[in-house]
Design a protein that fits this description.
329 residues; 4-stranded antiparallel β-sheet; 30 strands; mainly beta
Length: 329
């Protein structure tokens, strides 16, 4: 078995990155994945993303960028002369014939890579700041970013890919560890301030709605599943051996329900149907039933035999229906 580095679901096909320098294209026949094509790379694919017909991947050693047209298999490979932050989710902005990839640098700042120049990718620095960027989200034409030594800042993305500064939320508050967005509600984790903050946006300005105490020694990341259960959305603070469980909706403020013990640590989690599924450090999945009041009942432990670092919920097929599926790798 070859270890998997990433999985992307696009237009009812699965793209599976392999440690053996390749990407497989597969389809689901109702009971298993069937390999339909393969894309050869000159390096191990790390995180990758598909934008329209372009598959974009960065090598884990942060040296190479590969762009592949999944329709024609034409490709280009570029040597990067800056160090992108490898585990950051990739972000593409711009419209047709003007797509650019936004990459945070390990040394601070952002680079924009022109995806329309097919022979070799052109990139330029578009945002400079000291210290690594820990959180980067593009949402409705705005860029929200913050990091170890930088506060949470908002930028408008101009047509040429240049971020234009709008404002800063609490300029003296640094060390933003994680940022999640649900429509116009923002959740920002600040371990140094021992706070999980709920923010709202109004006329391009971020304002503080609420602040919840967190233990900075234990909670270090946030997860926000897309699925609602009984009209409620859920937010999870991930710690070394626990999950902080929060709920909210359009009328309910962020409310902490309690703490869920995960003694071996949580690698990732997802909500599918009315189930909370947690990938643990013990090569297993823990499954909880979510009731309408969002009380959680333990149901089972599924021993997987391997560590699943990421869980992905795949929607039903557009034309044939069916149910959601969960993929782990």
């Amino acid at each position: 078995r070859t270890p998997v580095t990433d999985v992307v679901y696009h237009m009812e096909d699965y793209y599976i990155g392999l440690l053996s320098n390749g990407i497989l294209r597969a389809s689901w026949d109702g009971s298993s994945l069937n390999i339909t094509d393969s894309l050869d790379l000159s390096f191990t694919p790390g995180k990758f993303i598909i934008s329209d017909s372009l598959l974009i991947s960065i090598s884990p050693n942060n040296k190479w960028l590969k762009i592949i047209n999944i329709n024609s298999n034409e490709s280009s490979t570029t040597l990067l002369f800056f160090k992108p932050k490898y585990n950051q989710e990739l972000q593409v902005f711009g419209g047709h014939n003007n797509r650019q990839l936004l990459l945070p640098s390990q040394d601070g700042g952002l680079y924009a890579i022109d995806l329309e120049y097919t022979q070799v990718a052109l990139y330029k620095p578009v945002y400079g700041h000291a210290g690594p960027i820990r959180s980067l989200i593009l949402d409705r034409g705005r860029l929200y970013t913050g990091g170890t030594r930088t506060p949470l800042e908002t930028y408008m993305i101009d047509p040429d890919g240049t971020p234009r500064y709008l404002n800063t939320f609490l300029p003296t508050l640094n060390n933003l560890r994680s940022l999640q967005i649900s429509e116009d509600r923002f959740f920002a984790l600040y371990p140094q301030a021992e706070a999980l903050m709920e923010l709202s946006i109004d006329s391009n300005n971020l304002s503080l709605v609420d602040e919840i105490y967190i233990d900075s020694n234990f909670t270090f990341d946030l997860r926000l599943p897309a699925k609602r259960v009984a009209g409620l959305k859920s937010l999870y603070g991930i710690g070394n051996s626990h999950l902080d469980v929060y709920i909210f909706n359009d009328t309910l403020p962020l409310t902490k329900l309690g703490i869920l013990s995960v003694f071996s640590g949580a690698n990732d989690l997802e909500v599918i149907d009315s189930l909370l599924v947690i990938s643990t450090g013990k090569f297993a999945l823990q499954v909880y039933r979510i009731y309408d009041d969002f009380s959680l009942e333990f149901r089972s432990t599924l021993n997987m035999g391997t560590r699943l670092k990421d869980l992905i919920v795949v929607p039903p097929k557009r034309f044939s229906g069916g149910s959601e599926r969960l993929i782990g790798f």
